[in-house]
Amino acid sequence: MKKKIIVLLFTVLAMITITIAQTTKKTWPEMKTFHSFMSSTFHPSEDGDLVPLKAKADSLLIAAQSWKASAIPSDFKPEETRAALDKLVKQCQAIRNAVSQKSPDDKLKKMIKEAHDTFHTIVGECRKAEE
Predict the structure, then answer these.
(1) Structural domain contains residue 42
(2) For 55-95, what is each residue's pLDDT tens digit?
(3) CA nearest to 46, candidates 122, 97, 106, 96
(4) Could you tell me if residue 53 is inside a domain?
(5) What's the CATH number where 106 sits?
(6) Does residue 48 belong to any structural domain of this protein?
(7) CB–CB of 121/84 below 8 Å?
């Protein structure tokens, strides 16, 4: 019960953070596209459901590559953002490879969590401070 409450609170906090960021900052379509794949694969994995991740691993990688190839908006720190996007693409490539190799679910769960953490680094720490 306690774990479910923590997961729920984290999810709500993440949604609020993203909503605020989307309404107060410039729109970055490739980030929104990636987020749709990340949320539809990561959140089910928290409950042990790896089926969406296995089904969407290719799309997750393609969305990460597209995001990396897009222009970085002016309200993001370019060097930090580029480095984090490089890391994210590598993580998504590793996830896709692990899915292809039928890696154990616990390994996939750890990998998607790490990619999710990198995503939150980009949308949070890579933004420039409010002026």
Answers:
(1) yes
(2) 999 999 999 999 999 999 999 999 999 999 999 999 999 99
(3) 106
(4) yes
(5) 1.20.120
(6) yes
(7) yes
**CA pair distance 112, 74, nearest whole angstrom:** 28
Nearby residues of 4 by Cβ (< 8 Å), 6 or more positions away = none
Q: What is the 3-state secondary structure (H, E, C) of the chain?
A: CHHHHHHHHHHHHHHHHHHHHHHHCCCCHHHHHHHHHHHHHHHHHHCCCCHHHHHHHHHHHHHHHHHHHCCCCCCECHHHHHHHHHHHHHHHHHHHHHHHCCCCHHHHHHHHHHHHHHHHHHHHCCECCCC
Closest of 35, 40, 38 to residue 18, by C-alpha: 35
Domain range holding 93? 28-124
pLDDT tens profile 17-46: 655 554 445 689 999 999 999 999 999 999
Tell me the two tokens of residue 130: 């409010």
CA distance 26 to 8: 27
